[in-house]
Amino acid sequence: MDHLDLKGALRKFFGFDSFKGQQEDIITNVLNKQNTFVIMPTGGGKSLCYQLPALLSEGTAIVVSPLIALMKNQVDAIRNVSDHDSIAHFMNSSLSKTEINRVKDDILAGKTKLLYVAPESLTKQENIDFLTSVPISFFAIDEAHCISEWGHDFRPEYRRLREIFEKISDVSIIALTATATPKVQSDIQKNLNMTDAILFKSSFNRDNLYYEIRPKRQVEKEIIKYIRARAGKSGIIYCLSRKKVEEMAELLQVNGINALAYHAGLDATTRARHQDMFLMEEVDVIVATIAFGMGIDKPDVRFVIHHDIPKSLESYYQETGRAGRDGGVGECIVFYSYKDIEKLEKFLQGKPVAEQEVGKQLLNEIVSYSETSVCRRKFILHYFGEEFNEKQCSEMCDNCRYPRERFEGSIYVHQLLQVVDILQEMQKSKHVCAFLSGGVTAEIKSYRHDQMPMFGIGKEKDEHFWNAVIRQTVVGGLLYKDVETYGTLKFTDRGRAFLANPEPFTLLKQHDFSIADDDESIISGGKGGAFDEELYELLADLRKSLSKQHNIPPFVIFQEPSLKDMCLQYPITIEELTNVQGVGTGKAQRYGLPFIDLIKNYVEENDIDRPQDLVMKSLVNKSGLKVQLIQNIDRKLPLEDIGRAQGKSMDEVIEEIEAIVSSGTRVNINYYIDEILDPENQEEIFDYFSEAETDDLTTAYHELDGDYSEEELRLMRIKFMSEMAN
């Protein structure tokens, strides 16, 4: 088919006058029955690359797609450009026997040009037998990164596709993905046995997207403020858990924002309805887990907010890619806290070792991205194997818009390279940072690296600093992380040359995210401005003197998070004090007076504007569930059973009991503790908390020589707080 015919077909079927980017060359390649591999960012027009050739070819094209919702979306779109519905079908577990027979009849009659199948349906022998009997034009694999365990969405059934294709037909294959690092790319090609494929790789640069990372402080309040300033604009908020999605959507609604939740726990009808309402602009904001937005072609999403950090840079790139598909500006904001990374690391426990290692390395990359001071666009593109000059960023990321302080750093880069060299390129970043800063970790000890002459060569700087030097040296092309060995630091040729002959190297001052708080304040009411260190010192001193007076540890009066929240909210009445995190009415009345008096004087003396600028309505504490939890404890039910009945993990149940106790309600869980700890062990932990300056669990763990688990210490801390404070 010549050039003009292709343009005519494009106009006839899709109503476009011209192709985008490399679409025309890709389509020609598919029509010429060549294996084709397309790496094209979200919004670049991937679907057209197999849809148009399918409409123009003899036989049926088989499109493997991972999501049922996505298939339906695509099939509806194709049916809209045709005069009969049988032009496109999907085959997956959602169809009845009658519907499957109708699909097969249409294919046999030669009416169906595109058949979307889930990989699971393709493995069924009856489907293989049927497809072997009909003419196939080509195979297309959408979201091909699912093939690679190095991809962000690995699916084992995708690795069997090649053998199934061979059973059906020996036609050509087109594989498409919106995210592929060089490693994932070669993995896909090897697995599909298509190393001969012609590769079409578009630039991953989305120059209309603005990238920003913010520390995770008062995140709910920040999000509400942000959305209110963009009233009527479409946006997506991603959260890690379904529970957080539900809470966040409810919180936005309470604050007058038109928002809905979307996650896999909702039934299919509700999910489809919420998705349609978003597409039809009946709702402005969708709060979702990562399941949302795959292949959703809504052009005018103006912002994508990550309430929680995603688990890989690929996921991040794909989720932010939902913004600004119409070419208008899309803002991509992430709220970052290292605690989120620790949570994600916890999820990896219990998985096979290789999977854990891959997961950890993907997490390291997202940490590096979040904490880097270099141009974020340059960092993302470097990750996907693309060179980029940050001058072209045009201040479309926070690091270019508000540049960090620069300093000459060749001395540090040279020290780093020397250490990588003497460690024989066999260690990962964490180990190298510990070695440089003189940290004696278990690993350093087991390798006896603390005995080496260069150990601690950079000890005037901490691990946080050295981590930043490694990141900038990797992006600067002197070192690279070897994927095969899960992130070991290795030299590039340029790095070897630098080691022999150091040159000037500009480093950027790194961000400090250590004071981000993992804001669980959704129940606790509004929060305000920046953290007030000076007030914190005064409140801590007051707490200390009251603790001596009452002969109880300081944290029994108010815990750390409560004091910090007072420094943000400046409460000056008992009622306002009950809005502070972890302060219930009982506690506010028992200990509150001296604290609010101190804050009142402080506010007057320092002329402080209290954060009344944004009155954020908080969710009412789910008091029904709280009462139910206390009743179940009164009935002496095992905590595991209480959790199971409410669909919660043990961790979440303990967290709720802690919140109840810290706000001033007495809870007796002795019946449960007596089952797991002997009286003398209980006494030892109780005595420890009676003497302790802090209720921090890590400190308790070390002070008690690691004899007790985190769970045992948490339960005993609840018992202690209940008996002492309430």
Q: Can you tell me about this structure?
A:
Helix content is 49%, strand content 11%. The chain is an alpha/beta fold and 726 residues long. The strands form four sheets. A seven-stranded parallel sheet has the order 3-4-2-5-6-1-7, sandwiched between helices. Strands 8-13-12-9-11-10 form a six-stranded parallel sheet, sandwiched between helices. The chain has a two-stranded antiparallel ribbon with strand order 14-17. Strand 10 (259-262), helix 12 and strand 11 (285-288) form a beta-alpha-beta unit.
How many domains? 5
CA-atom Rg in angstroms: 29 Å
Poorly predicted sequence stretches spanning 5 or more consecutive residues: 517-529
Reading side by side through the largest sheet, how are the strands ordered? 3-4-2-5-6-1-7
Spell out the blueprint of helices and strands.
Elements: H1 3-14, H2 23-31, E1 36-39, H3 46-56, E2 60-64, H4 68-80, E3 88-91, H5 97-108, E4 114-117, H6 119-122, H7 125-132, E5 136-141, H8 161-168, E6 173-177, H9 182-191, E7 198-201, E8 209-215, H10 219-228, E9 234-238, H11 242-254, E10 259-262, H12 268-279, E11 285-288, E12 301-306, H13 313-320, E13 330-336, H14 338-348, H15 353-371, H16 376-383, H17 398-401, E14 406-408, H18 410-422, H19 429-437, H20 442-446, H21 463-475, E15 479-482, E16 488-491, H22 493-500, E17 506-508, H23 533-550, H24 554-557, H25 560-569, H26 574-577, H27 585-605, H28 623-634, H29 639-646, H30 650-662, H31 670-676, H32 679-691, H33 697-703, H34 710-725
Parallel strand pairs: 1-6, 1-7, 2-4, 2-5, 3-4, 5-6, 8-13, 9-11, 9-12, 10-11, 12-13
Antiparallel strand pairs: 14-17, 15-16
Helix pairs in contact: 2-3, 14-15, 19-21, 23-25, 23-27, 29-30, 30-34, 32-34
